[in-house]
Amino acid sequence: MKVFKFGGASVNSATAVRNMAEIVRQYTKEPLVVVVSAMGKTTNMLEQLVPGVRPPEEHNSLIKEVTDYHLQIIRELFAEADHIVYKDFDQLIDQLREQVAQPPTHYSYDYDQTVCYGELISTTIISHYLNSIGLINKWVDIRSVVRTDNNYREGIVDFETTKRASSAFDTADSMLFVTQGFIAGTADGHTTTLGREGSDYSAAILSYCLDAESMTIWKDVPGFLNADPKYFADTVKIEQIPYNEALELAYYGASVIHPKTIKPIQNKNISLYIKSFLSPNAKGSVIGPFATIKPLTPLYIFKNNQTLLSVLPKDFSFIAEDNLRVIFATLAELNIRVNLMQNSALSFSLCIDDNKLLLNQLIERLSCQFHLRYNRGLQLITIRYYTQQIIDTIVAQRPILLQQRSRTTTQLLVQP
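Request: output the structure for the sequence above.
Response:
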């Protein structure tokens, strides 16, 4: 069995869905699980619908935007005006309306119950379309398969329970399955998510549980590049990447792979291919049990919209273990991931994604015990296999607010 993952860019229009279908058609002679993200930028739109994020009077226009976007794709894919896809789509939109009409409870819980509709809608449309062109498939609600705890927005997977539930992908029922990435479910029937851009991780979980022959991520790039083409005109495609190297790059924020993706496939020695849905027959890149990365070249990772928060004691004490315990407990409670941190005797500085709602909650809770200073709208640059000349060129005399170096990697927080 193979596992494919298609991201939002690969299904962001009717043309893209048709292209995805033709890729799938090439692999129908063997069992295949297709994991699909929300279409285009749907998750971004749904994030604005999370109760408490925007005033309720703005919800109708936002839901209309989501509805119109998907209806345009449906109308281009299905000639029949009475196709069952319309009924299924309407039901999902009605459920979305009910969800966003709920009063705010806890942001992370509300987030997961809302944004899941992106994947539910995309896979419903795609499953119906594949059936309509003769690629008969079984649609699987992944929330009944991938089981997590109640850690909303960063669900921790129960692999034993998930492996048992993976019988939903029984090849006696079908040779082709369509399911959702990013989302999962709890034992008491609530939706969780696996972290932003977590569809890669979903595919890795299924690859592990199904003992997949291989996993492939289909992207709009020719493979794993040493830098984002948005920042570099001349990028280098990495042909092969050892598991541990990929783990490091994902941890630092490489956009090609989700941070949790590698470990499940490494544990079962499953190769992960990164290929272009624009040139599906091209070689791409592969992550696997290699000794070295080829070719060896500097690797660049850029994370925008970062906030630098500095925490200082209000009295004459130092930032010691008891202070750090309070800070990390608050970060964990709010589910805030730290991208970079640095400690001194009198302050603790951390770099986090710039989520205004969560930042405000963090400041409110920590300000009771600490003085706080923060800078927003920053850029975090990670360079692996750096030289000083490379750092000087990339930074280009911009002020460095925070910097860390190891023998192979440097991270720099700068003004954009």
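The first helix runs from residue 14 to 25.
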